[in-house]
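The material for today's practical consists of a large collection of protein records. Getting from the letters to the tokens is the skill we practise here. To make this concrete, we reproduce a full record directly below:
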Amino acid sequence: MTAGIAAAVAGCVLTLSTGCERTPEEPAPRVSSPAEVCANLVSYWVREALKGSKWAGLDWEQKGLSNEQYEIHDEVLLAARAEERRAGRDAAFALADRESRRRCEEAKGATGSSENWRPPSEQRVPTGGLRPSSS
């Protein structure tokens, strides 16, 4: 047994009556709000799309987004692409972070509506609004 592991085990043995709990000096783990989780997910996937990542093509379910979060993603991505053309990638990343946070806070995490399917008339295409023809 290494010295570090031995010390940890000894510490736990000495505190068996308390169940080897964390010490008062250790901070409690931080819990993220639904809005923070939403903003982090949406911003991450918008950035991946801007970079042209091979993972950016995953569907909303594979990205771990609700339909409501995916809608925010599509709208933020459209705005970020316009910002990238106007002011560059760094400005687009900043916009993605800012708008994702703002929109997710307004929607209180946007956790609703996670059904598997949206009719084509309700789907958004984040490539400038162009849809392939049905022919």
